[in-house]
Amino acid sequence: MNKNSIDFRPLNANEIDVRVGNIAKSGGGFFLLLYKNARVDQNILDETFGIWNWQCKYYQVKNTMVCSIGIYNEERKEWIWKDNGGDDDYQAEQVKAELSDAFKRSAFCLGIGRELYYAPKIWVNNDGENTTSARYSVKVIEYDTKKHITKLVIINDKTKQVVFSYGIKENNAQTGENAPKKASVDNNEQKGSIDKADLSLIQAYVSKISNDESRTRFYKWLDKNYGTMNVETLTLTQGREVLNKLTGGNR
Known about the structure:
Elements: E1 17-23, E2 29-35, H1 38-49, E3 54-61, E4 64-73, E5 78-85, H2 94-110, E6 122-125, E7 136-143, E8 149-156, E9 162-166, H3 170-175, H4 196-207, H5 212-226, H6 236-246
Antiparallel strand pairs: 1-2, 2-6, 3-4, 4-5, 7-8, 8-9
Helix pairs in contact: 4-6
């Protein structure tokens, strides 16, 4: 371990939870927040240091539960500790929740999941299906070399529809850059067999195209390469190719 820093990897999409944050007074929409749970922190600590080279302990300060996570530094031959307090504002399972919250905050101090602090504001319109009682999850997340989020896609768990997207490469959708050299043909695939999640992502990307002329160019490209101007009629393989084109091949 470098004595000056710990290089934790950024969180994967399936390690990030989504919950509802502030709700508009008008009821027209709400914000979503990204967070992690203590099990993710524990897994990353095991992955980074091994099960024997980290530990945690708890103590109270003025009725606030504090978690202290210790990492053993081989170079200094000593334990390095990071502490943080938990939130006691829980109605049920208060002690368990406070212990978990203190652990997560202490792990943030070490650097695990700190990239979530820099997530874009995630606004969702309340349209009857996307409500505060629905469940949401992260479908796609990507980072730059500084662990800043460069791409984020969130879906409704029930409908599988995209409710928020960030970091879309609009130029790819407009001009047909990164187009496949030859459209895929698979006689075993039926038209319209495109994966529903892929279809939702493509529709979200296309909706970000800024003007009608650019959108027309995209559909002309689709017709030229796949013989259709309706993404819903694409096959499974074609849908994946189109989505890879729209994301610059980073999917």
